[in-house]
Amino acid sequence: MRDIFAKALVFFSKNKKRLFFFVAFFVGLVGPMALASSEATQEASHGSQAFLLWLPVILIAAAISKLIEKIGQPSVLGELIMGVLIGNLALIGINWLEPIKTDFFIQGLAEFGVVVLLFQVGLESNIQKMMKVGLPAFLVAVIGVVLPFILGTYVVGPMMFPGLSQVAYLFLGASLVATSVGITARVFQDLNKSKIREAQVVLGAAVIDDVLGLIILAVVSAIATVGSVSVGAISIITGKAVLFLIGSIVIGVLAAPKIGQIFSKINNNTGMKAIIVLSFGLIFAYLAGQVGLAPIVGAFAAGLVLDPVHFKFFRDPQIIYDIKESVSDQEPVTKSKLLEKIKHHSDAHVEDLIKELGNYIIPVFFVLTGMAVNIETLFDLPVLMTALVVTFVAVITKIVAGLAAGKGSNKLIVGVGMIPRGEVGLIFATIGAGLGVVNDELFSVIVIMVILTTLLTPPILAYLLKKQDKNPSGQVVDQAV
Prior knowledge:
The protein is about 75% helix and about 0% strand. By secondary structure, the protein is mostly helical. The chain has 2 domains: about 1-100, no CATH class; about 110-480, Na+/H+ antiporter like fold (Up-down Bundle), CATH 1.20.1530.20. α5 (about 75-85) packs parallel to α17 and α8 (about 135-160) packs antiparallel against α18 (about 380-400). The chain is globular. The chain starts with a helix and ends in an 11-residue tail after the last helix. About 45% of the residues are buried.
């Protein structure tokens, strides 16, 4: 992390005007806001008027964070760091941005943002590619769940937290299981690597990981509340998850073409296409939540089943239409070559529509995730040392899981891609704390582990992907997937 800030310092020091204009812009932006009446701001924080202030603050913060791309890091890292900085301004007496953390509209938009992200990633993938990495993804997921759960519950927990209940150790193990696929997916997307084999393995494993994590969370929570759990209850949870994933793919493949055809008869322009595509993803996300899965799993499944052929009844984008019209009188060979060149852009139009939307709302999720980080937890040395041990276990177990990625995959990239715990790990810890089995010290350790795995993964993964580009021997790239 020190290297990143050192490079940023070098970037500004080369040209003092850069630093001056950056500081002047930031002060000019937030200064008038900071001088606004704190009482009026607090009153508005519960209504839609505050949303009109908080959203541009987040978006401009996310825009400024893209400076991190100047030193070769993915923008998601900058958004997380910017969120951490904004979220901890209260430590130096600046409290006026605190209401952002609890603003209902911002939280809803953040959840919408991560759903759009996974929907977009699903659109960039396809079922055939996912099936090719099905077994490796399954093995990566199973090892990445079983190994950290066992080590966290039966080794790290009793060793680092002697005297706690067995249920507390179970929650520690469960928090180590989670994988926040949104962080990794964004890194792959930032570097235009969503279609490589390693990305497909990680995404497939993350879906399976979510199902297995759901089962573990349900079992551990039941043990904490009633002291036991039945085999029948576990079977029901598992069955619902599996049936949803299979059913959504089958129904989606059958229904999408007919839905597209029906709505194209009402209006076949780009606006209607965008409405159908986005609605499709959101409905799947909602249905996933109804069966107990994370909504992002449903969004990913929806993107996975959609195909350009499902929208063949809609008009091409205006630019594609204009190019086709302009080459209509060209000789057959030239015309054929030009039409072949633009076919990719026509097919990718659905992805482009969602990408444009994602550019505005996806950063909200990552800035807000960063704002949830309380860096005060890093100041307690005994807790920090314990957290480093837990983090080491969290990292090494996922890297070991990456060894199951199979031939043709960079196993280290897959393992590192499974490391971030993100908001998923925090959910596990929060549920445990709410049930009264996770004490303050254990909760702080889990929070620090989540912080470190979330912030360290993007730069490490970006480094490995760039290194692979320079030395691609043994890599299976897009064309080979």
